Amino acid sequence: MSHGGSSEGNMEPNLTPLLDIVLQLLMFFMMCVNFVTNQVSEEIVLPESMSAVPMDKNETDVLFVNLRPFILKDYETKGASALQKLTDKFKEGDPFIIILGEEPMKFSEFKFWLRNQFNTIKRTSKDGKVKTTIVMRAHKLTDYDQVYRVLQMCKIEGFRQIKLRAITKSVVQPL
Amino acid sequence: MSKRRHEEPSSEVILPITPMLDMAFQLLTFFIFTYNPSGLEGQFDLSLPSENEAAAKETKQPPPPPDPDAPPKIEADVTIIVEAVTDDTNRGEIAKIHIKQNSGSIIVGDLTELFEKLKLANETATEKEVVKIQPASKLKWANVVMVADTCRKAGFKNVSFVEPPGFNISVVN
Predict the structure, then answer these.
(1) Element (H or E) spanning B98, and its range?
(2) CA-based nearest residue to A148, from B107, B159, B141
(3) Which site in A147, A163, B8, B128 is 20 to 30 Å from A136, CA atoms measured?
(4) In chain A, which among 153-172 make CB contacts under 8 A with chain B?
(5) Measured between alpha carbons, how far is residue A81 from residues A42, A77, A92 in Å?
(6) What is the DSSP letter of B38?
(7) pLDDT tens sequence across A130-162
(8) ipTM score above 0.90
(9) Angle, nearest 10°, between helix axes A144-157 and B141-153?
(10) Hey, CA dihedral for B20, B22, B26, B29, is it positive or negative?
(11) Mean pLDDT across B73-101
């Protein structure tokens, strides 16, 4: 820090190494940041699975379906009017389908939404085939019959490829 | 000319590091606070009954004849039936697990025991990679995934899910 040869006695600290370290740390955090690239919902806590394999980054033609039971206490922090709207539509434990950019849906609404999606994709597809993969993100507390119903609906409407999401067990999500 | 140049005061360029450091610290603080090392999401394929069967159930029609071009359907030797706890405190947890084979059916209490029995079942099964799981309607999805994981760990690679008992696709809310 001190410049031994200088007679002026410049006491300014050398900030360059500090800046180097700060910039390196900054770069690390910027690289680690999770950008919202998927239409995933933070409200879904996925189950853990050892057999879940990493996603194929090339798979871009996907439709995300988030499913969870409606639990009132999880939504108490929302505004009164939003909460009222939800409680008018859903009872405790009801299936709650979340598609980003859409209002939460019941099964009956989801069925029509899915049909519309399928028809739109089919119409806009070059060869008239639907190659879209349904990525199902089911909350770990969802009842099996609700998960099964959504999967069957997807199949009935014509979607051939369905994948289920889970947290890979080696990296455990803190609760 | 050169003499005059020597006489000029040296024009040292001083880069102001302090504001840059301030900004870098602010950005660093932002990223530290927003850093959330979330778990790595993975995915797995699943096998379900064909869409024809499901559609036929919805419309209450008899199932259509099998498609000759479709791959041959492999029947599983082993079926696992998972019962769920129905009381309020532990609702949706695993109550009992039945392992059904051609030789008979056995009941296991937990996943460790299931793993041991499945390993033995895998040795005697004709279709060593195929297993069917029939979870109860109210079994929590996390428990279904755990049972599927146990099956894969025991050597059954192709895990298929069967509809829960009493399931009716046409009933939607």
Answers:
(1) strand B94-101
(2) B141
(3) B128
(4) 153, 155-156, 158, 162-172
(5) 21, 11, 18
(6) P
(7) 888 898 899 999 999 999 999 989 988 888 888
(8) no
(9) 80
(10) positive
(11) 83
Q: pLDDT tens, B48-71? A: 665 555 555 555 555 555 555 444
Q: Which domains does chain B have, with CATH numbers?
A: 51-59+75-161 (3.30.420.270)
Domain range A48-168, CATH architecture: 2-Layer Sandwich (3.30)
- 3-class SS at B53? helix
Per-residue pLDDT of B107-152, as tens digits, reads 988 888 889 888 888 887 776 778 889 999 999 999 999 999 999 8
Residue A67: CB atoms within 10 A of its CB come to: 24
Specify the residue for token string 């998927």: A38
List CB contacts of A87: < 8 A, sequence separation 6 or more: A72
**Interface A:B, Cβ pairs < 8 A:** 170
- Closest residue on chain A to B29 (Cα): A26
- Count of CB atoms situated within 10 Å of the CB of A84: 11
Taking an 8 Å cut-off on Cβ atoms, the answer to whether B39 and A51 are in contact is no
